[in-house]
Amino acid sequence: MNGDQIEIVLVSAASALSVGVLGLAAAWLLRNRSLRWQLIVIAVVSVLSVLGGILAIAQRMLISPHDLDVVTTVTVVGAAISLLVALALASAVSRWSRTLRDDVRRVGSAGAAIAERRGPAELQALSAELAATHRRLAEADERESRLEAARRELVAWVSHDLRTPLAGIRAMTEALEDGIAVDPNRYHRQIRAEVDRMVRMVDDLFELSRINAGVLSLAPVPLLLVDLVSEALAGAGAIATARRVRLDGDVPHGLEVHADPAALARVLANLIANGIRHTPADGTVHIAARAVPGGVEIGVTDGCGGIPDDERERVFDVAFRGTEARSPAAPDEVDTGGARAGLGLAIVKGIVEAHDGAVTVANVREPASGCRFLIRLPA
Questions:
Q1: 55-64, 186-195, 318-327, 366-375: which has the minimum mean pLDDT?
Q2: What is the pLDDT at residue 211?
Q3: Which among 51, 42, 47 has a CA at the least distance from the CA of 90?
Q4: In 3D, which of 347, 362, 354, 356 has the Cα closest to residue 376?
Q5: pLDDT tens per residue, range 225-279
Q6: Closest Cα to residue 247, out of 262, 269, 266, 267?
Q7: What is the CA radius of gyration of the chain?
Q8: Which residues lie below 8 Å from residue 149, measured CB to CB, with a gap of 6+?
Q9: 66 C-beta neighbours (distance < 10 Å), count
């Protein structure tokens, strides 16, 4: 590199450094202003650095005044156009940022629409993330609303379901105390039955509270499904006989699942009880199990006639009982052992998901019109 080139580099560097220092000072003073001003400062520093360097070198070259005017004019015109372009871009970025700020303010507001594409790729990505966050918040708000509605329904229905047997127990105890009970032994049996019903309801509430709190304790071990299903069917046999509902199962011998014995037994008991309750006389509740890739599938099919589409999504919600009457079983009705307050299927879902499994329900037409609850558990 010869002396002239070194001089050009030094003069250009000194000119650019001087303008750069002034630009940093201006940027510091404008640090709390709009982003537009920061972009304008960057453009001005870039243009003035080039302009200052060209003018300084032109002066050192001792060119004619006419040539100097030409160089200066061309540089100034280019600088002016560059500044106009920078101003336009700064205005656009500022407008995009204001729109993005408005979207941020609307996040979480009901009915608000969040745009997903605007400006550079970074702003588009941020806007898309805001839109996704807004949707997640809306879904969470909807779930919370449904849970709150379910809690209110649960309190109302449990209060109703407890009030009726308590009133009956009070009436029967008063009759026993006054000595006007025609058949005291029958009254004692009815009181015991009502107390057992309330105990089961309280147990279900306690179990559901543990599931919702995430403190359900599981001890998974390898289980033979054929033994577990046989015990569940045997336990519900008397109830099914009283309701004239047939129970049968189809489980391959040797099929194993890794699960908590008591918890999975409760899942099967609740599903069987639910099937017995909703299956008419001479109907069938059928349990089948099979190995599937990655785990085991257990299906419980009843003859309930099917679940309406608008209710099927809410079957596992707490306190949901569909179109059933809110009153508990009549004294002469066989108690299937399920949770009349709409807790049984919610407990089923909680226990299955605690095993990292999933439970779904679908309507079926064969062998009879009903529905099938399908449980998938990992191997």
A1: 318-327
A2: 81
A3: 42
A4: 356
A5: 999 999 999 999 988 999 999 999 999 988 999 999 999 999 999 999 989 988 9
A6: 269
A7: 38
A8: none
A9: 8
